[in-house]
Amino acid sequence: MKALNPRPAREPGKGLFMQSKLRAAALLAVVVTLGTAGTAQVRKEYRYTVQSHASITVTNDYGPISVTPAQGFTVIVRATLASNKVEVDQDQHGNRVDIVSHLLAGADADSGRVEYEVQVPSDASVSLHSTSGPLRAEKLNGDVTMEGANAAMEVHDISNAHVHLKTLNGPVTLTNIRQGHVEITSVSGDVSLSGVSGPLVQVNSTSGKIHYDGDFGYSGDYLLTSHTGDIDAIAPSDASIDVSAHSVKGAVENDFPLEPKTHLLAPIDKARAFVGTAGKAASKVVLHTISGKIRLKTR
Description:
Elements: H1 14-39, E1 42-49, E2 55-60, E3 65-69, E4 74-81, E5 86-93, E6 96-103, E7 114-120, E8 125-130, E9 135-138, E10 144-148, E11 153-159, E12 162-167, E13 172-178, E14 181-186, E15 191-196, E16 200-205, E17 210-213, E18 221-226, E19 231-235, E20 241-247, E21 252-254, E22 273-278, E23 283-289, E24 294-298
Parallel strand pairs: 2-6, 2-8, 3-7, 3-9, 8-10, 9-11, 10-12, 11-13, 12-14, 13-15, 14-16, 15-17, 16-18, 17-19, 18-23, 19-24, 20-23, 21-24
Antiparallel strand pairs: 1-4, 4-7, 5-6, 20-22
């Protein structure tokens, strides 16, 4: 009678090794799945009914905020969340709507990113806050406030409203702002104004450049000041302005045929300053820098 073939001897520890490998593979699969779920984008939408002159505030640590006009008195907030490391805290108190990105444990600039697309009634006041931005608002006639560290800021087609912007390093671009009360404060970000006019247009920058391209309106105060940045202003030859430009250490250039003023408190160093009027001198224009250059050019 033939003896049955014995089973091959199993190498010592091999079975335990294979079981350990399977357990490790299963654990890895769970980690990958959780990681994928954690980084998957989530889209949410919120709607609110408000009345005239509502107040909308959006605070976002990481990611853009864009605001455009809505139909009627409805606020629509569409949020795209980069991961489950961030939540959207939202609340409405009467005519005020507050939206805040709430970072959870372990969130960073990538996993904590939220993209906001917001529609508001055109007469609503909007306040946007972001560390890295960018921030954008357009086609509104309510007040616009923006604050950020490195956020690029853009405001377009705003009329009869206050526009107040504060940034550390982000560039600022304003286009077609009519009858606005404009105040901009920047540390090192460049500021560009195109077609901006109103009773007050004030820009204060530490080291950023300031560029103005417009007509200086009629009967307004335009104060463009930088510590070390250059100031460039372009206006039509028929602009009605009363100009005072002064650079402590930098050069100045002027293309306007200014009428000299007869009563000056001190003599003017023409290499560093120019003063005079054009047209009916309806708007006051002050250009001042410590070490930057000043250029006033006709279009």
